[in-house]
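Quick one, T. Sequence first:
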Amino acid sequence: MRRGVVFHLAALMLGLAAPVAATAAGVGQGTPLTLEEVLQSSRRHAPQVLEAIAKVRQAEGKAVTAEGAFDTVVKAEAESRWTGFYDGQYAAGTITRPIENWGGSLYGGYRLSSGRFPIYEDERFTNNFGEIKVGAVLSLMRDRLIDDRRFGRTAARIDIDIAEADRLLTAIGVQRRAIGAYNLWVVAGLRLNIYRDLLKLAQERQVGFKRQVQLGARPSILLTENEQNILRRETLVARAEQELAAAANALSLFLRDENGAPMRPDPTRLPTALPSPAPTPVDPRANLGARPDLRQIDLRIQQATNRLALDRNALRPRLDLKAEVSQDIGPLGDGGRSRAGTETKVGVSFTLPLQRRVAKGRIDQTTAEIEAIRRRRQQTEEQIINAIDALAIDVQATEKLRTLAADEYERATTMAGAEARRFTLGASDFFLVNVREEAAADAGVRKLDAAYRQIVARAELAAAAADLRALGLE
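Structure tokens:
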């Protein structure tokens, strides 16, 4: 029996060194689930990420709508008098093309008429083959550099960048939580394996004790004491099984099938060890400009700056230049010689609101908005730097705690092994062996927890530093 105790104690120590054995995790029954697989699944199927992607598409749709302000417009009309004194018939078509610069438009048209028109419709007369007309309207002061159309298009493009930054910010948060959920599931499986090994050791020891009690080599009270140990260890196993199920349920929010439905990982897919933590950036602040939340604020400043330019544009007087050339073609029509030849027209129009209070009020509003956004950016950047520094401290602390936990585990396993050998030689008692076993198991659990905290701390730092490679987003 003592040889069996030593054998199972060695198995327990081996289980603490490589905590997921085939009996606990069923490694041979399924391919181990990797962190990369979880991160890939959450990146593709997490509802939060898909929602953010949909918002990007929504912003792209709005940008297409804004481009519609520069669409070419075709207009056609026709009119025919069926009764009355006049029998004039008229048809016309116009193509108008807004131009991006100078805030104006180009236009061209063709019209054709026949018959007689009343004097108040004299402008409808054309020669027999119609009239061709081309012209342009240009803004010389207001709307020359910026107008509502160009501002709307630029703002829509910036909205796409803002939505893309929000998508990246959402993805970073999802991946950070996915790393935590995956490692919590792995730790729960490793912890369950430790407690199962402890329980198995006590159960098999009970078999040997029963034989010794029957032979009179051991008192019967020893069976009761070991039954108490078995019950305590069964409680630990039951609690660990519950924690594993809860961890699997939490992980299902990030591990999804091809249809995007949550998928609980099978215990047979538990890996044999925790994955390596994300590498710590040499300078976590170096990539601060890549933070999507800071980029969003910078884009909003840019958007507000463009709006300020539009508001200042409204202060300017409007001075528009219009040039037009028309030519009637073909034999003279009913309108007479006045339609013959090439007609060229040049004109200007001038508009100036005297108070311009609307524009002045908007300038004051937008200037204050820009100042407020800049202050918000300053505060956000300072908070990010503070958070990165705190997380860097946390990473260093968890690394030290992990090292201490590993050292404690090594000492505990040494003591447990030594106590087992003394028990085999009859120099120790059952109570002390049991205490050493459970102390070694507890040290193994603390080692797992310390490693988990270090992984989570590095994942948090990677998220704060926008380390996309560490989060599986590159």
